[in-house]
Specification:
The chain is an all-alpha fold. It contains seven helices and no strands. This is GatB/YqeY domain-containing protein.
Amino acid sequence: MSSLHERLRADMTAAMKAKDGLTRDTLRMVLTAVRTAETSGTTATELSDDEVQAVLTKEAKKRREAAEAFDGAGRTESAQRERDEAKVLARYLPAELSDAELTELVAAELADGGFTEPRQMGQAMKQIQPKVAGRADGKRVAAEVKRQLAG
């Protein structure tokens, strides 16, 4: 079991003892998603810290999208619950890249790969995405790559 997985389990147990329903329920949901990822496919495997991190990132994205959908439907209480769950998940995710950091990273990777034209965006994204995994939303990265290639 990865150390991140162990930390999630320990924190869920602590949340149960502290009667912190939000944290308990959020971590229970994440641990279920991790278990599902471990047992999907032909054979059960144990996820590494990076793979657990990917599951956390995916779940955090689901929470952001659900909050936006609830806001659009006028369901502010449900949207707030989703945002609160996203805050719990953020404790386990690496810090988001600032706009300046993202701009700098994209510029460096575009220069390294020799990408200069907008039609090379797909290739550039393949090179950049692993470097920003979990630290920046894909839409933000794509917008920055597009902006720099167009300029």
